[in-house]
Amino acid sequence: MKNKLKIFSTIMIAFAIIFINSCKKDKTEDPIPNPVNTTKKYALVIENGAQTISPDGNIAYSAVLIDANGSVTPATGVSWSTSDSQLATINSSGVVATLGTGDVKITGSVTIDNVTYSAFVPLGIYAPAVFSVAPSAIIWNKGDNLQLESVFLSTSGVTNPTCTYQSSNTAIATVSSSGLVSFIEVGQCQITVTSTSINGNPTVTVPVLVVGMPEISLPIIRIEVNPPSKDLFKDESQQLTAKAYKSDGTEATTTFTWKSSEPSIASVSSTGMVTPLQTGTTYIQAIASGIVGQAEIMVNPDTLVWITPFNTSIPAGGSKQFTVEAYHLTRTSATPYTGITFDWEIPTYGFDMFDIATVNSTGLVTLKSNAMAGMMTFIIASDHNNPYVGGVGSISVAVADDCNCGAGNSLVDHITVTDSQPINLNLFSSSQAQINYTAYDVSNNPVPSPSLVFCSDNIMVASVDSDGLIIAAGEGDAVIKICSGTYAETTVNVHVTLMK
User: Fold this and answer.
1) Residue of 187, 205, 186 lying closest to 195 (CA atoms)
2) Which of 76, 50, 52 is nearest to 64 (CA)?
3) Residue 55 has what DSSP assignment?
4) CB atoms within 10 A of CB 325
5) How confident is the model at residue 263 (pLDDT cuts 50, 70, 90)?
6) Which of 244, 408, 448, 465 supports an S-S bond with 484, CB 3.0-4.6 Å?
7) DSSP notation for 431-484
8) SS3 state at 195
9) pLDDT tens-place string over residues 369-412
10) What order do you get walking across the sheet with 173-175 strand by strand?
């Protein structure tokens, strides 16, 4: 046994000597450099992970480093890239800009101690898909039906998906396989719509409220008054009739109560007879069972007060006599009143610029000498015993032609007008007139080409052209001047009336 141990010990010592000698460096060999340590110490993780966004959405990526001990530190200096720059780009800060729809891969990498760490995550860019049902909520009458419509909006467009329908309470409302809702009874329930042709089988819940119209028996729902409107003079009357109708359209037999909304304008009897009382508008009502029908009654004034001239112009500093007539009006006639005393008035405003005229008790109007051309005022004539009955006329300050007689013709000695004066015109029936004139020399011979000028002192009443044609413009009086330089001149009076 001892011999065997010695032999084993000898062999082991020999192997040890050989191993030691083989490991000794040859002094003549070059030194071997230390190898670069490429062992990875970290894992790079993109914090956001897999994401989806809409084409108009935005997202910013960030990454962290995790060491073998599980310690987490933010990664800095990360280089970012996308797998398809046609769909999305990413800047150095990790912010993505979408350019289209589809799937891309977001890659981040960072180098630490000559070791590069990389990670990637998928990003889906999709337009949102919407599954909806119309109407989204229902309030409907008992006994009616309503068709539900479903629609799916996606990147592929608009489609009508296949759906199933279920009511939470068929005693309130039922729904067919095609989405037709029948409203059975007053109450509330829900219709659940499930799309079986869309991934995920999305559902939409439609709340339903079924209402019932109260059944109230109304003996009368409508009253018609005939005629529905009428204008009357004060000496007239009008019989109104009324009819009441039931909900089925048939006429109801009933008794009406008649009422005037403005009894001071027109009264109504218990049988619907209307009597006008004063000018104005009222409504005559027929009432039965709380239902009202009505007719409009307009009472016209039975007196017309007409001021002559109705609309005229007067030169500054001039005067004009106004007259007034009153008529009793009926449907077919206008009879003049006699014996009425009228009060004349021109409104005053407290400003000299606007207070351009005065009027005396007989209607004679005098314009102030400083009245500005074109200014306007009103003249009022009212019944002394009934101030509410009156008429109104308008007065304006006359505007004259800029009358320049020119160089004239030295042969002209005098000008003769053969027309009767004043020349009377009417705004409606005879609004123009030609002046008949002749220019003579000192021997009473007609002068050819006498170079005459025509001008009006009140173009708001009558204007005149270069040939002596007078054109009526407004009610009142005007003076037409005919002249040839400083050699000769004459005047023509014009009176314009307004047809009544």
Assistant:
1) 205
2) 76
3) T
4) 18
5) very high
6) 408
7) -EEE--EEEE-TTSPBPSS---EEEES-TTTEEE-TT-EEEE-SEEEEEEEEEE
8) strand
9) 999 988 999 999 998 888 878 899 999 998 888 889 999 999 99
10) 145-147, 180-183, 173-175
Helices and strands per DSSP (H, E), number in the chain:
1, 49
The amino acid that residue 386 corresponds to is N
Q: How far apart are CA 241 and CA 224, in angstroms?
A: 8
| pLDDT computed for residue 217 by the predictor | 58
Rounded percentage of the chain residues whose pLDDT exceeds 70: 89
Bridge-based pairing state of the strands 187-195 and 203-211: antiparallel
- Cis peptide upstream of residue 55 (ω within 30 degrees of 0): no
CA–CA dist 498, 377 (Å, integer): 19
Per the CB < 8 A criterion, the answer to whether 454 and 463 are in contact is: no
What is the residue-wise DSSP string for 123-153?
A: EEE-PPPEEEEESSSEEEETT-EEE-EEEEE
The pLDDT of residue 13 is 38
8 A C-beta contact, residue 325 and residue 342: no
> For a pLDDT cut of 90, what percent of the chain falls above it?
59
Owner of token pair 């005022």: 377
Structural domains in the chain plus CATH codes: 42-125 (2.60.40.1080), 130-211 (2.60.40.1080), 222-299 (2.60.40.1080), 303-397 (2.60.40.10), 414-497 (2.60.40.1080)
